[in-house]
Write a structure and sequence with these properties.
A hairpin with a 5-residue loop joins strand 15 (259-262) and strand 16. The termini are far apart. This protein folds into two domains: 21-101 and 156-435, FAD/NAD(P)-binding domain (3-Layer(bba) Sandwich), CATH 3.50.50; 102-155, no CATH class. The chain is α/β, with parallel strands linked by helices and 439 residues long. The protein has helices spanning 28-39, 56-59, 74-85, 87-91, 109-122, 134-140, 162-175, 219-225, 282-286, 288-298, 309-315, 327-330, 340-353, 399-415, 432-435, and strands spanning 21-24, 44-47, 63-64, 102-106, 129-133, 150-154, 158-159, 179-181, 186-192, 195-201, 204-207, 210-213, 233-242, 253-254, 259-262, 268-271, 276-279, 302-305, 362-372, 379-382, 389-393. The protein has 15 helices and 21 strands. The strands form five sheets. Strands 5-6-4-14-15-16-13-19 form an eight-stranded mixed β-sheet, with helices on both faces. The protein has a six-stranded mixed β-sheet with strand order 8-2-1-12-21-20, sandwiched between helices. It has a three-stranded antiparallel β-sheet with strand order 9-10-11, with no helix packed on it. Bound molecules: flavin-adenine dinucleotide (FAD).
Length: 439
């Protein structure tokens, strides 16, 4: 069954000798950062080792969600949604953004209690999330029947189309003057006088005064070569596309064991909720103490797997020189195998819950590797130990929705503008490993 291929971005550009900022990584975070910077008159080059949005940013569910976000992330989610609303006009293209609302539906009081607790954080911020039940819930999710007693609904939440949105944003950034290079792996960041001075790529060097590392699942490896110990582990999520179904809600809906979103092409993106795999790798041991508290909280949602990943990662070099071939050139696109048990489980659970889906067929399956920090909140921050070096990574499965806000915040931090939201929850120094001098 075919995998995900994002819209191709072909933006031929001259090689710049110098720019203000080099962005490493062409997912939604790197692309939003480049777009925000170029719009503010800051010269920028973005280097992507494979395709724009080839990894997580084309493989995600496409939920643009404020509901259920960590309280630390809520203001950024709200600001990001505001930016998403103007995105089609901003990039003069279709991104699939639709303000459809999002609902979580609950089978029992215990599930509902989790949402009630979260509402205590959302209400003071003026978010329009509310509990729903009975006929109101049936109107929101037709065919829901008696199984689901109640739910929580946020009318201002939305959806967008991952594999067209990010390429459209990259094309717009290029049109506005950003240099966008694909098939161009960044190998190292060079420094002079304790500050960044250039990025060396497989195709040559670009001098700059700032660098943003937005490398998703690769950020830890890249930073490690620079002596920066970024605590990030990788988690695998598996997804299916179902054929179209009549009379179903336009909005994304999640239950405890399935989630679905109607797509622009009429089909549905479906997954088993709370069913992700963490392969045991050498990093699992190196970072064990950092993740222990969150593992205790989330162990029910996570399946630990001992598989070939341990040996594969053990063989990947952790240090290299700028003139050496790097792991980034060897894997242009991370395209992991989906887990059939979770793909089929999600579809089965959905078909049992909502009879309208009973005749829908699986037409595509895929998987993506998420970059997860110990507190599941991203790092959007300068790094104290190296002047001009910024991190925009560790989006922990939430980066598609908050991507435009994160890119704008990163541009605020680089240009010294007053940030639209408080960057404090995203500071690098909250992790002891990032507060240390470079090794
Ligand atoms: C199955 C799944 C479902 C999800 N669902 C949602 C959802 O519904 N809503 C939501 O908000 N979020 C969701 N997410 C999370 C979201 O997709 C990510 O948080 C977001 O896409 C991260 O964007 P990114 O730019 O940081 O990383 P990525 O999209 O992974 O991009 C990083 C890029 O950096 C490149 N790169 C790395 N190293 C180098 C180098 N040295 N040189 C050049 N390029 C390099 C990579 O090739 C890659 O293209 C989901 C994720 C998955 C996997």
């Amino acid at each position: 069954m075919s995998r995900i291929i994002p819209d191709l971005v072909e933006t031929p550009s001259d090689w710049p000798e110098r720019v203000d900022v080099v962005v490493i990584g062409g997912g939604i975070i790197g692309v939003s950062t480049a777009l925000s910077l170029i719009e503010r008159g800051v010269s920028v080059a973005l280097c992507e080792k494979g395709l724009i949005a080839g990894e997580q940013s084309s493989r995600n569910w496409g939920w643009v969600r404020q509901m259920g976000r960590d309280p630390a992330e809520l203001p950024l989610s709200m600001e990001s949604l505001r930016i998403w609303e103007g995105m089609n006009a901003r990039v003069s293209a279709e991104t699939g953004f639709r303000k459809t609302g999002i609902a979580y539906i609950c089978r029992n009081d215990a599930e509902l209690a989790v949402h009630e607790e979260w509402l205590k954080h959302a209400r003071p911020l003026g978010l329009d999330s509310a509990l729903v039940s009975g006929p109101a819930l049936e109107t929101l999710v037709p065919g829901i029947g008696q199984t689901f007693k109640a739910g929580i609904y946020t009318a201002s939440d939305a959806r967008a189309e991952p594999f067209i949105a990010v390429p459209a944003m990259a094309r717009a950034a290029a049109k506005k003057g950003a240099h966008i290079f694909t098939n161009c792996a960044a190998r190292s960041v060079e420094t002079s006088g304790g500050k960044v001075s250039s990025v060396v790529t497989e195709h040559g060097e670009i001098k700059c005064s700032s660098v943003v590392l937005a490398g998703g699942a690769w950020s830890r490896l890249f930073a490690g070569n620079m002596g920066i110990d970024l605590p990030i582990l990788k988690i695998l999520g598996s997804v299916a596309r179902l054929s179209s179904v009549d009379g179903m809600s336009d909005m994304p809906v999640g239950a405890s064991d399935f989630a679905f979103r109607k797509r622009l092409d009429g089909g549905f993106t479906v997954a088993q909720r709370n069913a992700n795999i963490a392969a045991v790798t050498p990093d699992s041991f190196r970072l064990f103490s950092d993740y222990m508290p969150s593992l205790i909280k989330t162990w029910r949602e996570l399946a630990l797997r001992i598989n070939g990943e341990f040996v594969r990662e053990l063989r990947i070099p952790r240090r290299w020189k700028p003139d050496e071939m790097t792991p980034f050139e060897q894997v242009r696109i991370l395209d992991p195998d989906p887990t059939p048990k979770f793909v089929n489980g999600g579809v089965d659970n959905l078909q049992k819950a909502l009879p309208a889906f009973r005749n829908a067929r699986i037409t595509k399956i895929w998987a993506g590797l998420m970059d997860v920090t110990p507190d599941a909140v991203p790092v959007i921050s300068p790094v104290a130990s190296l002047g001009g070096f910024y991190l925009a990574t560790g989006f922990s499965g939430h980066g598609f929705g908050i991507g435009p806000g994160a890119g704008a915040l990163m541009a605020d931090l680089i240009t010294g503008a007053t940030p639209a939201v408080d960057p404090f929850p995203f500071r690098a120094q909250r992790f002891a490993r990032l507060a240390k001098p470079r090794a």
